[in-house]
């Protein structure tokens, strides 16, 4: 039987490298647990969901607990999961759950739909036994309070300038059976309009995977959606190794003015990890070897 080179990569957003030590700790913990599951023959879907849940629970990232606030101080979160057999589940603008990525998996497995949003997604989560949880942290409330006080800091004047505060998380894994899965989860962009949905839950924008490879994207959601970056990268993996596909997509993104980062794996276990922002934190494990970059 062909031996598959199982592997896993995670990113912690392309918004910067502050709090490097805490990012490093969170990424290493998440990915080590995910890799351990793959090493025991677990599925890439279980591995990416578990690793993404750990990152959502790590308050330093903009996903799950610690998500950024919108213009009126609410936390609305987006998340999606996809597997190389084209199963997909996502939630958009969901509130008051601890792990949006888990609700996305429930959408994938318990419904005939791909994406549930806002109140419908919350009602579905409760029906599935997901408990009320407040993901707002004091730190993110302080950021919101400070920005609100700045007179020029209204959404309409400053939206484009504010978009470097992103820290979406994403995990991509290849398992022993050759299945690839991708999980992406985001607290969105600070001071966005209520109801705004980013690229994360949009199939082909923030998340995509097929038999050739899988990619999770982070960055400016509106531009990522416009250019369908995850789908673009995965399509290129049919003809090129992951690193070449990733390089082509980041060059394209730079050309069209989309600030972003992407991480992924092709079906041979080769990684891609590129960004055109100040920095992107990431962590990968293959053949037992861990690599991590958080800027420290
Ligand atoms: N990439 C995350 C967002 O724009 O919402």
From TrEMBL:
Substrate binds at residues 196-199, 218-221. One of its GO terms (cellular component) is cytoplasm. Gene3D superfamilies: (Glycosyl)asparaginase. It holds the Pfam family Asparaginase_2. InterPro entries: Ntn_hydrolases_N, Peptidase_T2. GO terms for biological process: proteolysis. This is Asparaginase. The lineage of its organism: Bacteria, Bacteria division TA06.
């Amino acid at each position: 039987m062909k031996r598959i080179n199982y592997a896993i990569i995670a990113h912690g957003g392309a918004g910067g490298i502050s709090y490097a030590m805490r990012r490093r700790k969170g990424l290493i913990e998440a990915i080590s647990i995910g890799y351990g599951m793959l090493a025991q023959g677990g599925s890439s879907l279980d591995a990416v969901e578990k690793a993404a849940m750990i990152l959502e629970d790590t308050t330093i990232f903009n996903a799950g607990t610690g998500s950024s606030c919108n213009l009126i101080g609410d936390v609305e979160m987006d998340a999606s999961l996809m597997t190389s057999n084209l199963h997909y589940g996502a939630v958009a603008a969901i509130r008051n759950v601890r792990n949006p990525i888990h609700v996305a998996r429930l959408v994938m497995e318990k419904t005939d739909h791909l994406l549930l949003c806002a109140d419908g997604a919350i009602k579905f989560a409760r029906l599935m036994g997901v408990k009320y949880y407040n993901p707002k942290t004091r730190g993110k409330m302080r950021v919101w309070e400070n920005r609100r006080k700045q007179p020029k800091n209204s959404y309409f004047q400053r939206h484009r300038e504010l978009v470097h505060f992103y820290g979406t998380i994403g995990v991509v894994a290849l398992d022993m059976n050759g299945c690839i899965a991708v999980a992406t989860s985001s607290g969105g962009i600070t001071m966005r309009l209520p109801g705004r949905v980013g690229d994360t839950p949009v199939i082909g924008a923030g998340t995509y995977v097929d038999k050739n490879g899988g990619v999770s994207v982070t960055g400016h959601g509106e531009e990522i959606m416009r250019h369908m970056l995850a789908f673009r990268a995965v399509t290129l993996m049919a003809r090129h190794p992951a690193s070449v596909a990733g390089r082509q997509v980041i060059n394209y993104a730079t050309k069209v003015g989309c600030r972003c980062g992407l991480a992924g794996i092709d079906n041979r276990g080769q990684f891609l990890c590129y960004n055109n922002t100040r920095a992107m934190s990431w962590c990968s494990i293959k053949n037992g070897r861990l690599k991590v970059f958080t800027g420290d």
